[in-house]
TrEMBL record:
Keywords, ordered alphabetically: Cell membrane, Membrane, Transferase, Transmembrane, Transmembrane helix
Class of the enzyme per the UniProt entry, highest EC level: transferase
Record organism: Winogradskyella bathintestinalis
Enzyme Commission number(s): 2.7.8.-
Domain of life: Bacteria
Protein name per Swiss-Prot or TrEMBL: MraY family glycosyltransferase
Membrane topology: Multi-pass membrane protein
TM region positions: 16-40, 61-81, 87-104, 116-136, 148-168, 175-192, 198-218, 230-248, 263-286, 307-332, 338-357
Amino acid sequence: MIKILLENFNPDIRPFVWLVSAFILAFVIAYQTFPTILYVSKTKHLMDEPDGRSMHANRTPTLGGIGIFFSLVVVMTIVGAMLNTKVLLLVMGSLTILFFLGLKDDLTVLSARKKFTGQLLAATLLILFTDTRIIGFSKIFQVDVLPYWVSIVFTLFVYILIINAYNLIDGVDGLAGSIALLISAVFSVLFYNSGALSLATISVALIGALTAFLRYNFSSKHKIFMGDTGSMIVGFLIAFFAISFISQTQNNMSSLYFGSSPALILAMLFYPLMDTFRIFFIRIFIMKKSPFKADRNHVHHRFILQGFTHVQTTLTIVSINLFIILIAFSMLHLNLNTQIGLLFIYGSILFYAPFMIKKKLKKIRKNK
């Protein structure tokens, strides 16, 4: 009976049911895994010690990435025989490389060079063996198709940029997980509508794992951080989704997003990228120090300094990023260069607005 059912089962017939099942499976596995991780972390004293730049006061486990990785691998293993096995296996291989690098960094210390090398290796595997790459600039600044090796190098750069930009926003409760949840939700819809069921399954599985993680990340009694293990895995998947989406649309002239995919990706990743470029500018040109030296000048740190709580900071940033994405989708009819130019303008204004509103409210309270 089971053999006949499996032989005749086709996820393409009921993709929505399939994706809901992938979400539930990922959520349940992650949710059941985190208590064990918390217990082992506390028993073996594998905790993050608060320091001068920490936004928390208590010792907290940082191995949440283990639960995220475990749930993703189980889901991809179970669905692998029924979907695009090649892509799923290569994604799992890349995630495994990053998992062990991140785990070593969370438990001991890993040099930036080794992390960078691991990220390059993981990204190269997917680019070369699936030929999933950014083939051109979609006529941004009149540049269209790139030479093959230039395309590969640029795609590698995009992977490294997104992975590390995502890692940098993991500074307050729920922020990194919520931003990734939002981005994965958008990609799930895009992949579902385009018929890319393998990619939709991975993105939905990530949503399930992150939903379970956020339950603990926001908790006051059983808090857990995703750590470098989680941030590298999640950042890598977001980069993979972004590059896969651009690659698909650039190779399909009939796609609704053929001339707009770079702008949509920039909108989805607006906060991580904006914060990264901003922090690098401050460190290099204003503070005259290494751009990789940690401090508390991130946008989310500024929100906390302005009196926002962790939850308020996360909700505000995620809401703004969602609004930016919605505006980007409403401007698909415009020229790509115009879309990107306007994105930088309205995106910057929207992220500056909460500080102006907070300052105005303080002034009103003072005058009362």
